[in-house]
Amino acid sequence: MKKTTKGIAAGAVAVCLLAGMAGSPKKAESLELSIPLYRDEFDINTEIPVDVSVSPDDADIDDLEYFSDSSAVSFTDSVINTGNAEGDYSFYVRSGDIESNILSIHVVDISARNEATRKAEEERLAKEAEEKKAAEEQAAQEAEEKAAAEQAAREAEERAAAEQAAREAEEQKAAEEQAVKEAAEKTVAEQPEADPAPAPQPAEEPVQIVEDQVQEVPVSGTAYLSATGKKYHSIDHCGKMNPNKARKTTISEAEAAGYERCSKCW
Question: How many Cα atoms are found within 13 Å in the side-chain-facing hemisphere of 154?
């Protein structure tokens, strides 16, 4: 322990007079140390007042000695100076052969700790701000990618719809053209066949026709009917007849149906 001694300085004459007048001084029977404003922690470079209680109250403690367990702190005249080093320290006093209780205190650098706390808080806030910024940037990027994907999907749907509409328009146009073509073919097929103009015949010399020499057209035999027209023919390709569409029958049946003999092929 570090020791600080408080002695009595007096003249020999005064000591003798006092001793003669008051008798022998009373010795301390017990000593008690306490800190009025005790705390769990004390800051560095702080003076801490200490109360020294003695029993009996009128005991002589002019020879009181102060002890501390480290040179980093000081204890004298009932005051502890915490110095500038953090740590745990102990103190006591002694008068003659009587020792007090031991006081213990915890010393910290409150300013440095507050600075460290402030710095740690700033770092925490900076980290949170950085993480928040990164999260916002990530969210913005994801939103942008989602919007781009949705836009691409809409454009793809619009292209597909336009292509489908174009195909349907082409199919409709082709169907209409086919319908017009079929209608035209049907109209041509349904038109009656025009009788071809009679070929010019060479002038015949008047011939005396003998009644028994006139050849009669038979009422029986084969006849051909065209797809249109009201005449029957002796051949299936008379005039503009289509032999593939000519219908074979008999003369009697054709006449019974109202057909007349074709003068070109009979």
Answer: 6
> Is 85 in contact with 44 (CB distance < 8 Å)?
yes
Nearest to 199 by CA among 230, 231, 238: 238
Domain span including residue 255: 221-261
What distance in Å separates the CA atoms of residue 106 and residue 109, rounded to the nearest whole number?
10
Q: Are residues 62 and 130 in the same domain?
A: no
Residue 9's pLDDT is what? 31
Is there a single domain that holds both residue 104 and residue 114? no
CATH number at residue 60: 2.60.40
- Before 218, cis peptide (omega within 30)? no
Strand bridging mode 65-68 / 87-95: antiparallel
What's the whole-model pTM score?
A: 0.44
Give the helix/strand (H/E) hosting 93. strand 87-95
Of 95, 91, 89, nearest in space to 31 by CA: 95
**What distance in Å separates the CA atoms of residue 252 and residue 258, rounded to the nearest whole number?**
10
Q: Which of 48, 56, 41 lies closest to 91 in space, CA to CA?
A: 48
The token pair at 199 is 């070929």
Token pair belonging to 87: 């740590």
- Tell me the per-residue pLDDT of 161-214, one tens digit each, with 9 for 90 and over: 999 999 999 999 999 889 888 887 776 666 555 555 555 655 555 444 444 444
